[in-house]
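Project standup — Tuesday

K.O.: blocked on the structure for the chain from last sprint. Re-posting the sequence here as requested.
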Amino acid sequence: MARVQSPTLLSTRWEGEDLLVLDGDRVIDRLAAREIHRVILVCDRSDSPSDLVLAIFETATDHLVFPPQSGIAGRVHFERQGFWMQRPCIYWTSASRARLPRQLMAGVWPLRRHKTGYLRLPIGELAATLERWPLEGPQTWEQRKWARIAANRVLPPAGRIPQ
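H.V.: unblocked you, prediction finished:
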């Protein structure tokens, strides 16, 4: 299992066409935007950025697992919106239905809540697990927000006369 040590000051940022993973000011990993095939956002309770449990970026060869404290929600939800709109690759799932294999979860004590740090894994290590997850999408956060608003509307859509 290829495991990248989870840094203490993990953060992410865009630099040109690359997504950088940083430990403080030191770049520990780099992902070219063109290599992103799929993003899976695992959320708890709702699909708001504050409820993100983890994000998985899939490339042709790897899965990159990001914890929420990396700031990845901002990189996906609010930055590069044009990029994400042109590239329908963001999928959603509930944390209650999407569990990582136990060996990838941080911590060893069974009663402690497990939180995963940053990981870069060969694609074969997570592929079977991800195939079992019920995914919704592709849909950006903005598209998902407006779909939820439309679904909860009390009034009929404009132009329709109620019968």
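K.O.: great, moving the ticket to review. The beta strands are 10-15, 18-23, 26-32, 38-43, 52-58, 62-66, 90-94, 119-122. The two ends are 61 Å apart (CA to CA).
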